[in-house]
Amino acid sequence: MAVNEQLPSATELARALSVDRNTVLAAYRRLREERVVDFRRGRGVRVTATAPTAAPVEQAARQLIESARVNGYSKAEVLGLIEE
């Protein structure tokens, strides 16, 4: 994500990830506490200038999620593989 890039609304992201909206809101709050994003009324949630670069593990996890989605794995199947 680029600095000042706007993130999807909590509702949009929750729908895309098939999770509860409150889960997304909790994640956004945590990212705000870590100074990765900033909330502004009328501007939405945006990446801050102090956002750290993604760690290698995070990048690998994102690649796994995308690969699973492309190959038709369900969320439960992916979580089962991770738990193994």
Characterise the protein shown here.
With 84 residues, this protein is mainly alpha-helical. Helices cover 54% and strands 10% of the residues. The protein contains four helices and two strands; from the N terminus they run ααββαα. It has a two-stranded antiparallel ribbon. A hairpin with a 3-residue loop joins strand 1 and strand 2. The model has no long low-confidence stretch (mean pLDDT 86).
Characterize the main sheet: 2 strands, antiparallel
Q: Strand order of the main beta sheet, please?
A: 1-2
Total number of strands: 2
Tell me the radius of gyration: 14 Å
SSE ordering: HHEEHH
Helical residue percent? 40-55%
In percent, how much strand structure appears in the residues? 5-15%
Overall mean pLDDT score? 86
Work out the oligomeric state of the chains in this entry.
single chain
List the total number of helices: 4
Structural class: mainly alpha
N-C termini distance: 31 Å
Question: Low-confidence runs (pLDDT<50, min 5 residues)?
Answer: none
Characterize the overall form.
globular
